[in-house]
């Protein structure tokens, strides 16, 4: 049975997600719904590739309507997904031309039943990249991509792996009481401090989006980073109604911290979390994270993903104090233009002047022009 690659359309979305639910390495960001979210928000062209096997099923029988009836057996075949790869095409004359799985998030990449299928999907992606005149393909994995050890690439295709970033993962017990008791006394005191200061946390959906975005957009300006449009968060909440929740921490009805958690399988992902620097002395971020952890425990989830960090930096240490453990990310950069890729990770030093200028802009301006820039930045 030969594997062939085809692009999955909306009518096959349930079949795509069914494969994910049965695959042990499937992540939230492989779900078909992200195609709708990204296309609807940013208009990027997407290519959702599936590896298909035609599987003959048991024959079915037809009885001929004759006096001496005889049975005719007809084989029936059905398609079976044995691998998949979601790709998003980001193309801009300044920011480059790339196929990414998945942009804006930590994970994505190839899922497959075996190495042969991995190879088939990767080679198809490379051919697609050449057709689109893309300079590179980026695949974001939580595990190593084994097919790269045996695949035959042309002299004009170069592969480079970056694993300098980690996810910070916390195993969750059966109850939040057990989790709280497992923390050191200093951490428990930090969690209780915002409660003593009169801060409260609310968990909900679209009704909290405006307050979430107030904090989010200010925090992104302070970080010197263009912000996603509020429409992206709205589309996430609408598409993943059963998965996504907003948490907002208030002081006297003023939002001071906010986060968005999305549950998939046994994990609560936290792709976006923010707090206002001027209220840092009240520790609203401690109540924010505790509320998400408490929610995860109450809903039977077993893992909390604090998100991407650079080891030994501030955010890494913050997440580490909760007991989170690092798990390396493997981001593969496949150059299609014959140019070697630098093994130096791109980071803030390269954009220091831009960051400094952005931090001085009024927040309403960053909300207006930020999304026009952010749509082209795959990180």
Helix/strand layout:
Layout: E1 3-7, H1 13-22, H2 33-42, E2 45-56, E3 60-63, E4 71-74, E5 77-92, E6 96-101, E7 111-112, H3 115-131, E8 136-141, E9 158-162, E10 166-171, H4 176-182, H5 185-196, E11 200-204, H6 209-223, H7 230-239, E12 244-251, E13 254-264, E14 267-275, H8 284-298, E15 303-309, H9 314-320, E16 325-328, E17 330-335, H10 352-358, H11 363-374
Parallel strand pairs: 6-8, 14-15
Antiparallel strand pairs: 1-2, 2-5, 3-4, 5-6, 5-7, 8-17, 9-17, 10-15, 10-16, 11-12, 12-13, 13-14
Helix pairs in contact: 2-7, 5-8
Give a written overview of the molecule.
- Helices cover 32% and strands 31% of the residues.
- The protein is an alpha+beta fold.
- It has two domains: 3-166 and 331-343, Aminopeptidase, CATH 3.40.630; 173-301 and 359-374, Gcn5-related N-acetyltransferase (GNAT) (Aminopeptidase).
- Helix 5 (185-196) packs across helix 8 (284-298).
- The two termini are 38 Å apart.
Structural class: alpha+beta
Strand content: 25-35%
Order of helices and strands: EHHEEEEEEHEEEHHEHHEEEHEHEEHH
Helix content: 25-40%
Q: Might you state the CATH topology name of the largest domain?
A: Aminopeptidase
Low-confidence stretches: 60-77
Distance between the termini: 38 Å
Count of helical segments?
11
Could you tell me the number of beta strands? 17
Shape: globular
Please summarize the sheet with the most strands.
8 strands, mixed
CATH superfamily of the largest domain: Gcn5-related N-acetyltransferase (GNAT)
- Report the oligomer: single chain
CATH class of the largest domain: Alpha Beta
